[in-house]
Amino acid sequence: MSSPDADLDEVTPLALAAQAGDSAALEELCRRLQGPVYRLALRFAGQPADAEDLTQEVLVRLVTHLSSFEGRARFTTWAYTVATRQLLRSARRPAEASVASPEAFGAFLDAHAADPAFEPQAQALYDELCADVRLACTSGMLLALTREARLAYVLGDVVGLPAPDAAEVLGTTPAAFRQRLARARAVMRELMGQRCGLVRAENPCRCDRLVGASEQRGLLDRSCPAFARHPGVALPLPVHTIEAAARELDLGVAVGEVYRADPTFVPPQRLWARLEIALPHLLGA
């Protein structure tokens, strides 16, 4: 598994010890898993609060089905398989339903590309609101994909699983996975390639131009910007483009650099407290 998540295969000894009844190993296993699972859930659900709920559901399922891990397959593959199946069976959340289609999302961006830039009352406020718009916008773009395409894109271009492993996780063939990933990249290329200023400097869309429209649509709460104040996010976010990569590589691949350059979203501390309540006998709460 690529940075920022450590390779989950390193926790295989913990998983085997937990299977044998070692409660300390089980607790440490859960602590190691919660970061990668939370980041996957956040990309899938698009909102931190929903990602917390889904992470709890996934971790409970991973713990209660740990006996099905036989130690022959890679633990990374097994864990992501359990996680993606749980995510796919979960109920659709409001954030998912709010993004009608890639075309509708693109139309929203185009309608506000020429809006006046947000003028800050203070630099700290400017940094916070622009960061929230940036992170919420890229999350929204993922929600424009179907659930299956979204998972293929996140596993392939953000997490960085090799095609054979990602295909096994999603229960398909490597060839079918590559086709699914190619379709997802095409959508992301269409959404971001000629719009997003993070991809190319000459593109029209800028985060500070979307602050006003995001507030009007209820996408941004200035009193509590969920992404900008998320654990693991340091402000101001670095401002750079991947223009060189976008010109030298397939643009659909290069767009993934925007997501890989995002902050490392750290699970909120309250998530562990929720797990202790959900698994009291197993985690010793």
Total number of domains = 1
CATH topology value: Butyryl-CoA Dehydrogenase, subunit A, domain 3
Assigned CATH class: Mainly Alpha
> Sheet bearing the most strands, described?
none
Order of helices and strands: HHHHHHHHHHHHHHHH
Percent of residues in helices? 55-70%
Radius of gyration: 19 Å
**Cα shape:** globular
Task: Describe, in plain words, how this protein is organized in 3D.
The chain is mainly alpha-helical. The chain has a single domain (8-283), classed as Butyryl-CoA Dehydrogenase, subunit A, domain 3 (Up-down Bundle), CATH 1.20.140.160. Helices cover 61% and strands 0% of the residues. The protein is built from 16 helices and no strands. The longest helix has 23 residues, at 23-45. The chain is globular. The model has no long low-confidence stretch (mean pLDDT 91).
Helices and strands, with pairings:
Blueprint: H1 12-19, H2 23-45, H3 48-64, H4 75-89, H5 94-98, H6 102-111, H7 123-143, H8 147-159, H9 163-170, H10 174-192, H11 211-216, H12 243-248, H13 251-254, H14 256-260, H15 269-278, H16 280-283
Helix pairs in contact: 1-2, 2-3, 3-4, 3-15, 4-9, 8-10, 9-10
Sum this structure up briefly.
Helices cover 61% and strands 0% of the residues.
Task: Based on the model shown, name its key terms.
285 residues, mainly alpha, Butyryl-CoA Dehydrogenase, subunit A, domain 3, 16 helices, globular
